[in-house]
């Protein structure tokens, strides 16, 4: 018996090649080793071929002489028929159009050539044999060739495929019949595009308890098990681990619980076959092997997400459940039109260079969000652009993002390059550029991250764009726009960010997000106020829960470094306090009790709110150009000054404020007491309502202006008025006569010189003298020159 085997999940190419081989081997029978793809099944139900096909249970293995296998090089794709390969009398012949590095089939004869379809190889052999071919057979073979090469448009298509198709059409292939089963489809994604990487692996000897800690760290639902050579030997799921722990086997090795009957795919396996394997074998995750090495995992979630977006992006399927309302228009054309040409040229150059390396480049975060929120034709002023490079799991020493930034610098030597090797990121900066003005382009390697403890800096590893988006804070910031081909313009929105933009809400990605990084509370408030959005109710509950746990107080006591409560928190406060919307932002932070991240007792009560509003007024009045003080820092000092005196300095130190700020806050209570006492003393001893200006100058002069400003904001109105006069007028007051004028009048420089100038300044402050003539008269009366 001679058999032609079609693999599990057989497509039209497998069936077309098989029917062509029947022409060369008339005595052979075609056998389906498993189910076929849905479109093929539809064709078979109406086909003349269905009744002629065989299934494994109809075969007597001892009668088999030859097995001709089409469209696969893997034994596990042959189902029950794979066991026949070991029979001693069997000759195995293999036809396939793409060499498979993971292929396990050993054949007597192999026809493996780099063409677009297996049917092409068979059609070429049929052409040189004197065998007749009927129109129905030519039609099926042409259908197989069309489907495998995406109608001659796939990257693997060759001239040989075109010539084979032309020959089949000349043999009577029916284009109308082909069209019935060949609905135009985009090129379906491969496992390489769907998979997540790097893959978390453990050794067979790893304990169940350690495996559970790894799952907790990375949030995965299972782990791959590899041996010392890096070869995949098993999979263990979270459920397997939970059961082992339930029975108190935490110290048992994972090899005792792992699954070893594995189904795997390679990076070029396309979506339909992945779907088939998952459904047929009830598999939640498929390892991706390349040259024997584990390079990725495709999960049910990856597949479901891809299928959904294929629906809503118009691949011919009907999107149900109101999906059309959720569909986001691809904004790349709008981005091109909205950006100035010079900026678009930078993005386009970056995309072309990434393509040249075989990478994908994405615009992520705020750039995507702001593009989607802008109206058609509305110019877009992006000054901070975030790009992410997905290097498709190719090892790049210092990170693909750094390499791409260094390449762009060669084309833009006027930019400044910053490299952050720890995070595999780099940034190109332009400052006061004649066209770009001030521009920051951050280029990061796609990465995943883990927080070793709450408020720590994350530990990062190179990963995929999917994992990179998964690590972000809010849905509206977790979208990515692909800039590279193929698929330029594809919007990745795995968490409903587009819908949240339409609903005007800030929604966090993960329940523990605020515990891991408390600065995200401040970011949530900043985006909510800036965009005039609402914080989604569940997100607000997560914020309140994180604060109520007291985890931040505990961490600051246990850890010497908690950057999210130190430098990163200060950065978020800076963003808020220097923005025009700082007042409603502080109101919202207080409503959420998020000010407790600074100190457990900090609340925005009526006194503090009055002081902050007064601070904003005074800063704007006395320093409208922001040259005298750092306004956001002064507002932050007002916040911290509301704390108990003994805690102000430590909190300022924890936030790593400048030394002068820490000193000022540390000694503020003492300074306020001294100034208040001196002011009251002058009032008690003065005959008039207010002390003389010169007296106030003598009191205020020892203190720097920032200290006086802070005291004024917190003091009573009379003292605040005097400090205001000092800052606005008296501190700038000088005598109408300077040293040169004194010398011209005949006074000799010396110790008396300084006394005269100080006395003139006091007289001028107090209104005793008003100008140069009255000053000279004052000198004649109080400091007469000796007679010559």
Computed Rg: 38 Å
The beta-strand count equals 21
What is the CATH topology descriptor of the largest domain? inorganic pyrophosphatase (n-terminal core)
Largest sheet at a glance? 7 strands, mixed
Placed side by side, the strands forming the largest sheet appear as: 13-14-15-12-11-18-19
> What is the CATH homology-level superfamily of the largest domain?
inorganic pyrophosphatase (n-terminal core)
Strand proportion, as a percent range, falls in 5-15%
Low-confidence segments, given as residue ranges, are: 315-327
Helix content: 40-55%
Specify the structural class. alpha/beta
- Give the C-level CATH assignment of the largest domain: Alpha Beta
- CATH structural architecture of the largest domain: Alpha-Beta Complex
Number of domains: 5
How many helical stretches?
35
Dominant shape? elongated
Q: Span from first to last CA?
A: 141 Å
How confident is the prediction overall: mean pLDDT?
A: 87
Could you walk me through the main structural features you see in this protein, from its secondary elements to its overall organization?
- The chain has 788 residues and is of the alpha/beta class.
- The chain has 5 domains: 2-181, inorganic pyrophosphatase (n-terminal core) (Alpha-Beta Complex); 191-305, Roll (CBS-domain); 330-503, Beta Polymerase, domain 2 (2-Layer Sandwich); 504-597, Orthogonal Bundle (Hydrophobic Seed Protein); 739-782, no CATH class.
- Helices cover 45% and strands 13% of the residues.
- It contains 35 helices and 21 strands.
- The chain has a 7-stranded mixed beta sheet with strand order 13-14-15-12-11-18-19. The chain has a 5-stranded parallel beta sheet with strand order 2-1-3-4-5, with helices on one face.
- Strand 1 (2-6), helix 1 (12-24) and strand 2 form a beta-alpha-beta unit.
- Helix 3 (118-127) crosses helix 5 (159-170) and helix 25 runs antiparallel to helix 26 (631-641).
- The chain is elongated.
- The termini are far apart.
- Residues 315-327 have low confidence and may be disordered.
